[in-house]
Design a protein that fits this description.
The complex is a heterodimer of chains A (73) and B (372). Chain A is built from no helices and seven strands. Chain A has 73 residues and is an all-beta fold. Classes of the chains: A mainly beta (73), B alpha/beta (372).
Chain lengths: 73, 372
């Protein structure tokens, strides 16, 4: 999953065990999904199944489209 | 950016490098293995190895899942991609990994419908949009990525999406570490442990390493100061005679991991009796296949795959690189016949592969000069 990061660097999220910090814009609680924005202003739909309830404004650490951690506010 | 800039501070980096230098004991060398491909990438991207004293040597471990995938599994994926009516989806780097008769990218050029996706959720969306096609997701990765696949398969099952299936190549981190530690002649003094894998599995599964093998283990973040501090923590342990698992990446990694992630993985997957790792051979219970409850979504059961074991190209020494026996530049084909543009071995494919990292960040030249 090669992704162009902020530094213009190429890296594979899977191989690199990389997680991207994303901000929650909107939540679909019933589906366990959240629309998120990364620091490069890209929007992604993220599965929140393993981090529990999230709220708009929360920051998530996302890997392969799934939130691994919800950062404490 | 919070949690990023403060971990790239040059002054703090130099201070940590000074602490590491002060910890080095006369006449002693320290061989530390970074397990994770992401750490390898950080080390070369930020020049961390250049800050370390000569007595501290970093060895690159087997933590890049693309790099440890044997050619036979690539061939199996390509065979499915060539099945009629199939849309074959995978992560980007997987497309360039050479099988015995080409890569998925070449299969695409030959007419197979191979598509790059960002997540398994994207593959499921393709299946929903194409109900008359069969969509296969080629899943790869350690425990960091496996929950994502598991959640998507659970979602597909709940929704009753019949035209979606998954070929699982997920692997687990502990068995290869044990296999490495059991390798004769392995001279590793300590481990820089994987960061995001540990958000899922926690720190506890690594306790056997200090307990049974007497090697310290520090779970590390990926920013330059994270890696430097982890090296410093390992040297403190080695110098003081302490030997335990420590968690440098405590801002992200809970000691007990993520219970929800472990539960969904246990529901969707089960351990394979054995799985082949490039360079390490067959390792018992080191990979995940779909459980019987998810059999109908299992591409390996849905399609006939060759399942043939394929030997690596003779010239390629990825196996030795992955075990830390040789440095990438010591491989006969490094930078000549094998380059990121035309890789022979998997370690040259992914930017996190040790060979690609060496090549990209200029270690090619230094290495060749060093042995000249």
């Amino acid at each position: 999953m090669t992704d162009i990061r902020l530094g213009g660097d190429l890296e594979c999220q899977t191989c690199g065990d990389v997680a991207t910090r994303m901000r929650v814009l909107a939540v679909d609680e019933g589906e366990g999904l959240a629309l998120c924005l990364d620091d490069g202003e890209r929007r992604r739909t993220v599965d929140t199944g393993i981090v529990g309830a999230v709220l708009p404004g929360d920051t998530l650490l996302v890997h392969a489209g799934t939130a691994l951690i919800r950062e404490r506010r | 950016m919070r949690f990023v800039e403060e971990f790239r501070d040059a002054g703090l980096g130099r201070a940590l490098a000074g602490e590491i230098l002060a910890l080095v004991q006369d006449g002693r060398t320290y061989k530390l293995m970074e397990v994770c491909g992401g750490h390898t990438h950080s080390i070369y991207r930020y020049g961390i190895d250049g800050l370390l004293p000569e007595a501290v040597e970093l060895v690159h471990g087997p933590g890049c899942p693309v790099c440890v995938l044997p050619m036979g599994r690539v061939d199996d994926g390509i065979a499915i991609a060539h099945e009629p009516n199939v849309i074959f989806t995978c992560f980007g780097d997987m497309m360039r990994v050479p099988g015995s008769h080409g890569s998925l990218l070449e299969a695409k050029a030959e007419g197979a419908d191979v598509r790059m996706v960002y997540s398994p959720l994207d593959a499921l969306a393709i299946a929903r949009r194409n109900p008359d096609r069969d969509v296969v997701f080629f899943a790869i990765g350690f425990e960091t990525t496996a929950p994502s696949t598991a959640l998507t398969l659970k979602r597909a099952k709940t929704e009753g999406v019949k035209n979606f299936s998954c070929m699982s190549n997920h692997v687990t981190i502990v068995p290869p570490l044990r296999a490495l530690l059991d390798s004769p002649g392995l001279e590793i003094d300590g481990f820089i442990g994987p960061g995001h894998v540990s958000t899922v599995v926690g720190a506890r599964p690594f306790q056997f390493i200090p307990a049974d093998y007497g090697k310290p283990f520090v779970i590390s973040g990926f920013e330059p100061l994270d890696v430097l501090q982890s090296i410093q923590m390992l040297l403190v342990q080695l110098t003081t005679g302490r030997c335990e698992v420590e968690n440098q990446y405590g801002r992200v990694v809970p000691w007990d991991g993520n219970r929800r992630a472990l539960e969904v993985m246990a529901e969707v997957f089960e351990l394979r009796p054995h799985f082949e790792w490039r360079g390490l051979g067959f390792i018992s219970q080191s990979a995940l296949k779909l459980s019987d409850a998810y059999a109908e979504l299992d591409a390996e059961r849905r399609y006939g795959i060759p399942g043939v074991r394929v030997a690596d190209p003779k010239a390629c020494q990825c196996g030795e690189v992955l075990k830390g026996v040789i440095k990438p530049w010591q491989c006969k084909v490094f930078g000549t016949a094998c380059t990121p543009e035309r890789p022979i071995g998997t370690c040259m494919v992914s930017p996190e592969g040790a060979c690609a990292a060496y090549y990209t960040y200029g270690r090619y030249t230094r290495g060749r000069e060093a042995i000249a």
